[in-house]
């Protein structure tokens, strides 16, 4: 049996221990002494109970959730507050934590980064929020230490919002969903399926949380086994991990494309919360005696070995031993993909980094919400005690995830051991995860205990001839590699693991630096605006008909949000909608912004009351389809086509940048994540899908008649008429997946801001 097994079909979990496939009805009867239906047993999952406790709809199948707390970092909170303010916000109704862990360096753009931090502090004072200054903690570590608790639900504007190991169901979404919560509205979603992640055995001492997570991601991502579902961690193997270790597994569930996660809790969870001064937040969570799950991922922890996720996705996984035994073949496949991404041959030379010693790595990083946890850094320090990272190209950086973690590591001597070995110690910061810190050199390979290794997310720019790459590994194997002079090495080769002293949490740094103003809004405190903080531009309501110009056509199997709006230095413009929009698709389709602007100029002419002369023939072709189409009722806008857009970050800018450039729609085969589709909707764009081949190219037009009435009356199927050279060149079938009543109104109004203003 492999370490990870996927069940076909649903399963019953009996007494939290025994997995019985639903197809084995007789076995269930024998064990329970009676007839058990899947429908009744669904209510026995932990996830079902928590979701229903937060559901205000009165409908088990369609949830309207109100969360217990919200959280955002400094790439997203300015836009959220600005949107909520424009929609009538007066105070934060629930705890809202604003952290400054993404643009902490303030390295580019002059004052604009720190200006945004001052805005965040002023918003916390004005509306009654919690403000965590730069370098104090990464967003998710603060939430684990200070906010998460048994039976809670937390919503964050970062995709890695995951606190399941503490008994909290957490969801990462775009800013529009947080705005709804701030305005007393709800998070509307059909009740998701729940998948059991059944853990058995215990991890080997040299296996870390990233290894467990990568093994699961590799098994479930490509087949979509848990997409938009809840992962519920159960089984006896849970008890083999400390809660800090579980946190490291849990945060990576985002990379499976699941909606949320939850774990059974136990005495170790209780101890973690008590050690962090929050014993009253513990709640015993277990599935009921009989619980039904829509699928099961069975993980034998004892069979997991040190893993590596090669570029360019966390699901591109191998054991380190497997890679080292097949370096030429496996690295050749990565190089081929690099050439496709960069659009040139020889973009990345990995095989040239192999010699008799093995694969030479140029950089190592242990950081953020996945890698910077106390246990990971302690283990890395033990591996490097008395050793050297060397004075060559290879370098190692370590970022403890919070000041309390950092302080305890100092007290225990771990920081001293790492520094003596040549590692560079930095403060709490998420930069290495999204290209705002530790960007590697061109044609180098970085190994990282962070969350993602998407193309160019580490900060390189293929349009300027740059290409570097990231492989994800656990801190233990990164430390083993560092101790071996940068030659890729499995943690299994060392015998120094498991001697982890108890973490002693001291909240003093939070008590002295974090502003906690929840329920103490001071309306007289003004919001502090820097010169780069701009209001959202006005957006118009949906037209009766739409004329969409194809401004980008992307045929990659998956398009990430980092390709839709690059991370890294572009985030300095996060508070300036039009400034940030200049970077939209810049690493994937540099011509997009120019095309979109040209389309927006045509719309400006139309709004002035005339058919733009440049596209008079296009309008004529549209009138051949719908005689009533004219400049008064046919809105012009840009459109992006991608096969599967939106994997990765929850940043709403992936959609809002298209919208402020005049975007009216996305067309795709499927959306990679719910959160990206929600962002498209909240910014007033049509979330079209199509099973037809995209028989159009950039510059062509797609005319969709009667779209406003169709959306308003609940229709979900549309005809898109392709116009090329002034003639109808074909028709494609478009559809929208189910929309809630509010989502329909948001699209009709043109965006969430307009929807709330009208309300």
From TrEMBL:
BP terms from Gene Ontology: tricarboxylic acid cycle
Which organism does this sequence originate in?
Collinsella ihumii
Q: Would I find Iron-sulfur among this entry's keywords?
A: yes
Q: Which family does it belong to?
A: Belongs to the aconitase/IPM isomerase family.
Chain segments annotated as coiled-coil in the UniProt record? none
GO MF annotation list: 4 iron, 4 sulfur cluster binding; aconitate hydratase activity; metal ion binding
Q: Spell out the Gene3D superfamilies in the cross-references.
A: Aconitase, Domain 2, Aconitase, domain 3, Aconitase, domain 4
Q: Which InterPro entries match?
A: Acnase/IPM_dHydase_lsu_aba_1/3, Acoase/IPM_deHydtase_lsu_aba, Aconitase/3IPM_dehydase_swvl, Aconitase/IPM_isomerase, Aconitase_4Fe-4S_dom, Aconitase_dom2
Query: The organism sits in which domain of life?
Result: Bacteria
Q: What are the Aconitase/3-isopropylmalate dehydratase large subunit alpha/beta/alpha domain coordinates in residue numbering?
A: 50-479
Question: Which cofactors go with this protein?
Answer: [4Fe-4S] cluster
Q: What protein am I looking at? A: Hydratase
| A GO-annotated cellular component | cytosol
Provide the alphabetized UniProt keywords: Iron, Iron-sulfur, Metal-binding
PANTHER family for this protein: ACONITATE HYDRATASE B (PTHR43160), ACONITATE HYDRATASE, MITOCHONDRIAL (PTHR43160:SF3)
Name the NCBIfam families for this protein.
Answer: PRK11413.1
């Amino acid at each position: 049996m492999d370490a990870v097994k996927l069940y076909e079909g649903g399963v019953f979990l009996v007494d939290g221990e025994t997995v019985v496939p639903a197809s084995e009805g007789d076995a269930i009867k024998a064990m329970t002494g009676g007839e058990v239906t899947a429908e009744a047993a669904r209510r026995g999952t932990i996830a079902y109970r928590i979701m229903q406790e937060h559901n205000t709809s009165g409908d088990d199948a369609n949830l309207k959730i109100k969360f217990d707390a919200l959280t955002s970092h400094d790439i997203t909170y300015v836009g959220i507050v600005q949107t909520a303010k424009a929609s009538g916000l007066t105070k934060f109704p629930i705890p809202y934590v604003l952290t400054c862990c993404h643009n902490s360096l303030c390295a580019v753009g002059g004052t604009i980064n720190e200006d945004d931090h001052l805005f965040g502090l002023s918003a916390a004072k004005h509306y009654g929020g919690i403000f965590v200054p730069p370098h104090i903690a990464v967003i998710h570590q603060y939430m684990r230490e200070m906010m998460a608790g048994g039976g809670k639900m937390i919503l964050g504007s970062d995709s890695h919002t995951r606190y399941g190991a503490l008994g909290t169901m957490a969801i990462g979404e775009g800013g529009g969903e947080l705005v709804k919560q701030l305005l007393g509205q709800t998070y509307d979603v059909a009740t998701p399926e729940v998948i059991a992640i059944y853990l058995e055995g215990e991890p080997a001492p040299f296996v870390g949380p990233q290894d467990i997570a990568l093994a699961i991601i590799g098994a479930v991502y490509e087949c979509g086994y848990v997409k938009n579902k809840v992962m519920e961690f159960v089984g006896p193997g849970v008890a083999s991990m400390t809660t800090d270790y579980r946190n490291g597994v849990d945060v990576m569930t985002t990379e499976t494309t699941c909606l949320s996660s939850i774990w059974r809790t136990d005495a170790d969870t209780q101890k973690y919360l008590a050690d962090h001064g929050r014993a009253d937040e513990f709640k015993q969570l277990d599935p009921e005696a009989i619980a039904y799950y829509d699928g099961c991922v069975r993980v034998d922890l004892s069979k997991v070995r040190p893993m590596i996720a090669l570029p360019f996705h966390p699901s591109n996984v191998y054991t380190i031993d497997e890679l080292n035994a097949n370096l030429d073949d496996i690295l050749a496949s990565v190089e081929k993909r690099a050439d496709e991404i960069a659009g040139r041959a020889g973009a990345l030379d990995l095989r040239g980094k192999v010699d008799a010693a093995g694969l030479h790595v140029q950089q190592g990083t242990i950081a953020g919400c996945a890698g910077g946890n106390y246990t990971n850094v302690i283990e890395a320090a033990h591996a490097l005690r008395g050793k050297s990272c060397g004075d060559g190209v290879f370098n190692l950086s370590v970022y403890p995830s919070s000041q309390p973690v950092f302080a305890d590591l100092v007290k225990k001597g771990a920081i001293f051991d790492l520094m003596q070995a040549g590692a560079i110690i930095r403060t709490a910061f998420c930069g290495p995860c999204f290209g705002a810190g530790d960007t590697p050199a061109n044609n180098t390979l970085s190994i990282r205990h962070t969350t993602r290794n998407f193309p160019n997310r580490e900060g390189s720019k293929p349009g300027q001839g740059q290409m570097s790459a990231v492989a994800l590994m656990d801190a233990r194997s990164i430390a083993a590699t560092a101790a071996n002079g940068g030659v890729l090495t499995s943690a299994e080769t060392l015998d120094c693991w498991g001697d982890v002293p108890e973490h002693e949490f001291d909240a003093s740094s939070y008590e002295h630096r974090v502003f906690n103003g929840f329920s103490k809004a001071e309306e007289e405190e003004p919001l502090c605006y820097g010169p780069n903080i701009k209001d959202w531009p006005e957006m118009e309501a949906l037209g009766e008909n739409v004329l969409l110009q194809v401004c980008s056509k992307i045929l990659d199997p998956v398009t990430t949000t980092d390709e839709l709006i690059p991370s890294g230095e572009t985030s300095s413009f996060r508070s300036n909608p039009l400034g940030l929009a200049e970077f939209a698709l810049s690493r994937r389709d540099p011509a997009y912004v120019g095309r979109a602007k040209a389309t927006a100029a045509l719309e400006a002419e139309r709004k002035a009351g005339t058919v733009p002369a440049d596209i008079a023939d296009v309008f004529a072709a549209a009138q051949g389809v719908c005689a009533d189409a004219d400049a008064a009722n046919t809105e012009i806008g840009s459109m992006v086509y991608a096969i599967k857009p939106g994997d990765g970050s929850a940043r709403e800018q992936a959609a809002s940048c298209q919208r402020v450039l005049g975007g009216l729609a996305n067309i795709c085969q499927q959306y990679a994540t719910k959160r990206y589709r929600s962002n498209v909707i909240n910014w007033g764009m049509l979330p079209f899908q199509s099973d037809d081949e995209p028989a159009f190219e950039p510059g062509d037009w797609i005319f969709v008649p009667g779209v406003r009435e169709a959306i308003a009356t609940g229709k979900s199927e549309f005809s898109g008429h392709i116009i090329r050279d002034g003639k109808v060149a074909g028709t494609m079938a478009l559809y929208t997946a189910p929309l809630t009543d509010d989502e329909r109104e948001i699209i009709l109004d043109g965006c969430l801001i307009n929807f709330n203003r009208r309300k």
